[in-house]
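Appendix B, example 12.
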Amino acid sequence: MMRFQIDKMLEIAQLVSQLPIIEHVKDLFSAVEEVRPIPESIEQRIMQKFRLDWNYNSNAIEGNQLTYGETLSFLMYGLTAKGKPFKDHLDLKGHNEAINYLLELVADGRGLTETDIRQLHRITLVEPYQNTAMSPSGQLTKKTIQIGKYKTSPNHVITQTGEIHYYATPEETPGLMNDLMDWLRRATYQKDIHPVVIAALFHHSFTIIHPFDDGNGRLARILMNLILLNHRFLPVIIPKEERNIYFDTLAKGDSMILNLLSLI
């Protein structure tokens, strides 16, 4: 059974925290801190723009068909776009409400739990639905996507080249998630591990596990930003135009982590 190697992943986080790019991140963070505190009215306007961009791009990466303007009209004024799938509107609504819940967690100041993650998944996906899936024999089939519950059947995917990308099995998932949360708690209290590194490695590890039937990408980005906001960083928004770069980077991360694990 695959296990999350907590101690080795802590060492990797320490090594990555020493890269030159982290010094650049520290400089950018200091520049933001210098202009704080920001007047509340301005901060609200900035966060509104962040939320709009975040909602639009994170959903668009997953194939949501609503344009930026249609996203704005729906979230700001409740106007639905003619000819666009109802589920696309539902996904936006759920994602926006998940951000509300995320901000409540940040304001609360307590550590993230698996219960929070399952609740965020439940909010993001809104309600169960039917989706295309792959059977154990590799055949495409339909299955009901459960919300707020870890997967009970494999959720491997077929890549553009026809290869199967394997994630953790349903049997491995609870143990791996428990280990990931243990790693998060320990990494958070180590001063030699930078918060941006914690957020990035958590995001990557979460996508490797792919603990839910669906919605893992959106939730990984939500959780990454929760970690960043907890450390006073601004949320990261990945433009939909960089979708292929984003996925390619995650794939390269798979190889990099495996190589580092073998060396430590």
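The longest strand covers residues 129-134. The domain at 6-263 is CATH 1.10.3290.10 (Fic-like fold).
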